């Protein structure tokens, strides 16, 4: 493609009848005073939009205007132009064509940038024009800061290689307060990238020949980068110092916590766990952002029946509410949302947790510490002497904790807790198996809410799909002959969702309310009688049916619904 000609933007917008001569004069005056780009002044003044300018420039240059929001760009194509140059030149390779390489530019009238693109890419360029904000977002999706993180890891490796002294000098390197220290820059880049891609956990795992860094996104681990194994000890040392752990202890697991303030202005609480492995210390960090800790019930996307049942239960002055499910099913998030709704100046709320995950103002939170014999039972007994209205117990781990919690519910306290069970109907029976008297379970328990998390389809690459025979057969168990009347979808994979086809998660739920019928069955019937009565109450509202509902609504895939449903199918 021939070199673009320089365009006088003001004259072009007047020619396209997008601005008036008076508006052009006003913008030129503002440009002389501020030195800002003329196009930005037009946009900030409300004369035109970013897209209108881009379309006008594209029309003048006889080049296509491209919408980049949600556009799938193959990583190997994007990386034909290094990230640093792409951001500096405001350009992004889009696709290979018969004539060469199509490249989107935010400002194709920047002739110096055009010349440098030709020098860097060394091939025929087909110009496309994109709105600057869309281009910047596409750059973030396409590069994922991988090169930056890899560069910091390489810098740390180089600096470590230059250290000839033993542990003392390495400690000095790792505790350096300057933000220019390679280990600090590396960790800041890792945290910022993890936050940008919505990762819940960071796994730093030393292998025989490499240090692997993985992110857990929507419940699934993804490899972010691999670096030289020699930097593993320096990274683990720095993280242990940040969290106040014993840096001389490398033989035993340790747990800690620290706070990170990132350049983007985000504050993150980090829970850290270290564990000795064959090739060094494995470090796993759970990221707890302020936003994730402030969920309210109306933001949980609960089905209406579930939301009403939960609100009825927590509106009572006493009784126990249990949220059940496996690790990582969102139980704590649900309980904290309930606590947020209950958190008023008229209530005293105490939590007993191991560990304290989110910090909520106005709530008295206690960390269990078994090393000093400060266990759940001891803290719970002490909490009851503090005149609480609401108590949250992190988990019903044993008979003692369960009995104390149920007695507290009997004596005028609202108790919230979690339990690891497979579904809602089996939860009261699990308490009895733990040794809790039947009458105590029947009289104290108000609501059992069971939940799982399913991944949602990425809205940027969602497309319709027909169920295969196996999927059709599985769906028919829930939907009968109506399977063909529903529209099912899946995600093709795109840069927005890291080519997974999924973005975000939602819960699937079932609940059992302890009605008078269930209380009598609990007291006088067999466990099988209770389970049958509870399932009759849940008819058409099980975990399985809720997962199928999300699939029929096109929010999750059939495979994802089946994956979650196999955890509780009989």
SS summary, helix count: 23
| Spans where pLDDT lies below 50 across 5 or more residues | 163-179
What's the total number of strands?
18
Radius of gyration: 29 Å
Helix coverage percent of residues? 40-55%
Amount of beta strand: 15-25%
Strand order of the largest sheet: 12-11-13-14-10-15-18
Q: Quaternary state, please?
A: single chain
Sheet with the most strands?
A: 7 strands, mixed
Taking the alpha carbons of the first and last residues, their distance comes to 64 Å
Features:
570 residues; alpha/beta; 7-stranded mixed beta sheet; 6-stranded antiparallel beta sheet; globular
Please describe what this structure looks like.
It is a single chain. The chain is of the alpha/beta class. It contains 23 helices and 18 strands. The strands form four sheets. A seven-stranded mixed β-sheet has the order 12-11-13-14-10-15-18, sandwiched between helices. Helix 16 (399-410) links the parallel strand 13 and strand 14 (414-419).
Q: What is the topology?
A:
Elements: H1 9-15, H2 21-34, H3 38-44, H4 50-61, H5 75-78, H6 83-89, E1 91-96, E2 101-105, H7 111-121, E3 125-129, H8 132-143, H9 146-161, H10 167-174, H11 182-196, E4 199-206, E5 210-217, E6 220-228, H12 232-242, E7 254-261, E8 267-277, E9 280-289, H13 304-315, E10 319-324, H14 331-342, E11 349-353, E12 364-367, H15 376-384, E13 390-393, H16 399-410, E14 414-419, H17 427-433, H18 438-444, E15 445-457, E16 462-465, H19 469-479, E17 488-491, E18 502-513, H20 516-524, H21 527-537, H22 543-552, H23 558-565
Parallel strand pairs: 2-3, 10-14, 10-15, 11-12, 11-13, 13-14
Antiparallel strand pairs: 1-2, 4-5, 4-9, 5-6, 7-8, 8-9, 15-18, 16-17
């Amino acid at each position: 493609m021939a070199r673009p000609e320089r365009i006088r933007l003001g004259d072009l917008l007047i020619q396209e009848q997008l601005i008036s001569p008076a508006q052009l004069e006003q913008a030129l005056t503002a440009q002389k005073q501020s030195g800002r780009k003329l196009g930005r002044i037009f946009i900030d003044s409300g004369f035109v939009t970013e897209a209108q300018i881009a379309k006008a420039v594209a029309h003048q240059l006889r080049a296509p205007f491209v919408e980049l929001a949600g556009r799938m760009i193959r990583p190997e194509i994007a990386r034909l132009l290094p990230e640093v140059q792409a951001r500096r030149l405001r350009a992004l390779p889009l696709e290979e064509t018969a004539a060469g390489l199509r490249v989107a530019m935010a400002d194709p009238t920047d002739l110096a940038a055009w010349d440098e693109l030709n020098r860097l890419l060394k091939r025929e360029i087909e110009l496309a024009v994109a709105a600057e904000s869309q281009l910047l977002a596409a750059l973030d999706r396409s590069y994922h800061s991988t090169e930056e993180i890899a560069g910091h890891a390489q810098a740390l490796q180089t600096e470590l290689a230059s250290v000839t002294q033993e542990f003392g000098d390495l400690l000095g390197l790792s505790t350096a307060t300057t933000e220019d220290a390679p280990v600090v820059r590396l960790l800041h880049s890792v945290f910022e990238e993890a936050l940008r891609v919505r990762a819940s956990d960071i796994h730093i795992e030393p292998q025989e020949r490499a240090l692997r860094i993985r992110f857990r996104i929507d419940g699934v681990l993804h490899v972010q980068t691999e670096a030289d194994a020699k930097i593993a000890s320096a990274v683990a040392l720095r993280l242990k110092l940040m969290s106040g752990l014993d840096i001389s202890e490398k033989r035993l697991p340790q747990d800690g916590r620290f706070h990170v303030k990132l350049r983007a202005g985000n504050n993150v609480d980090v829970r850290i766990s270290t564990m000795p492995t064959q090739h060094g210390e494995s470090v796993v960090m759970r990221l707890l952002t302020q936003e994730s800790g402030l969920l309210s019930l109306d933001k949980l996307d609960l089905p209406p029946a579930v939301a009403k049942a939960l609100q009825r239960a927590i509106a009572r002055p006493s009784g126990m509410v249990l949220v059940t499910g496996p690790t990582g099913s969102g139980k704590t998030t649900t309980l904290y949302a309930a606590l947020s709704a209950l958190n008023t100046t008229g209530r005293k709320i105490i939590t007993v947790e191991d560990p304290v995950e989110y910090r909520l103002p106005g709530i008295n939170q206690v960390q269990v510490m078994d090393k000093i014999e400060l266990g759940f039972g001891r803290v719970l007994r002490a909490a009851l002497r503090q005149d609480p209205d609401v108590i949250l117990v992190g988990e019903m781990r044993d008979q003692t904790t369960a009995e104390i919690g149920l007695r507290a519910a009997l004596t005028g306290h609202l108790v919230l807790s979690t339990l690891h069970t497979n579904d809602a109907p089996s939860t009261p029976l699990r308490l009895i198996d733990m040794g809790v008297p039947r009458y105590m379970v029947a009289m104290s328990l108000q609501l059992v809410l069971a939940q799982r998390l399913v991944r949602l389809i990425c809205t940027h690459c969602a497309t319709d799909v027909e169920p295969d025979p196996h999927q059709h057969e599985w769906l028919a168990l829930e939907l009968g002959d109506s399977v063909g009347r529903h529209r099912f979808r899946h995600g093709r994979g795109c840069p927005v969702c890291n080519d997974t086809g999924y973005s975000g998660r939602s819960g699937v739920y079932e609940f059992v309310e302890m009605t008078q019928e269930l209380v009598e069955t609990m007291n006088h019937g067999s466990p099988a009688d209770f389970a049958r009565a509870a399932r009759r109450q849940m008819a058409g509202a099980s975990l399985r049916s809720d997962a199928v509902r999300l699939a029929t609504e096109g929010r999750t895939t059939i495979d994802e619904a089946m994956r979650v449903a196999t955890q509780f199918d009989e």
